[in-house]
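Hi everyone,

Forwarding the result from last night's run.
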Amino acid sequence: MHILRVNFEDTEVNGSGDIDFRCRPSTLRKWTIWLDSHQSVERLKLLAFVCIGSKFLPQLKKFTPLTCRSNTDGLRLEFVLARHAPRDILAESHPVVASGILVSMDGAVHALKKQDCKHVSPDIPFRRNSLGSGIRQNFSLAYGPEWLSHDGTDCFDFSKTTHRLHRFLSLFDSKAHLTDSVAFLRKLHYRTFKSRLPAVRTMKLLCNVFKKDFLVKTDDWLDRDAEFQELWKSLNPWQLQAIVPILDAVRHVMDATPHDLNPLERPGVILWRLPYAFCRDGRFP
């Protein structure tokens, strides 16, 4: 999934406006970088609202207020998405669709109907952005500059109704927890030695990238008796700062595509606030 365009009205900081990611009608930027400001932070959160989906967005008010300007009906978002078959949709479905939501002052989320929209073209098919179970469709993630890590408390259970929401929480809450990296590496290591091809390819790729870009000694990661708790303790703080969100992202990609032989090749959206804060010495691309 890619976001092509978002129109917003009555937001607390930016008011009304639009965000367009197209360079040309059929081309998207790989990176869109904004200066850090209150306006940029709110725009990132608006994009997260789009990605979370109307079905799951009401759960967010447990963690953060969904703010809009006073004396209005609420925050309005209209947006156009490009979806990818077969991960997001069936091959015969329309890849480009429009949708919209209204977030009222009390945090309630209402799906807009096509006739209620002001900004999207009537020629674009209109769909409700509900996303089914939230695990597979419209893959996207978001990260803030600060977070905590699970340490023996992570839940790898898809049945939790907040599973999709946790992919975005650190953008809104600096006390949000990312994946228990040691527990995830143990699971990935186990599947690797069970010769499960997605795990084998992912583990080898992580080992190569972490060794090259973050100077992690990953040779032992591929040993049958690797003890990741001890290996994790040997990492420097700056290495952990970079690796933890990467492993969190990889975990969620593999959750979303458990049967994909090359899970890290799936398209999607990642929203980062201060992404260069994760990597020192100019390692951010």
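The longest strand covers residues 2-11.

Cheers,
N.
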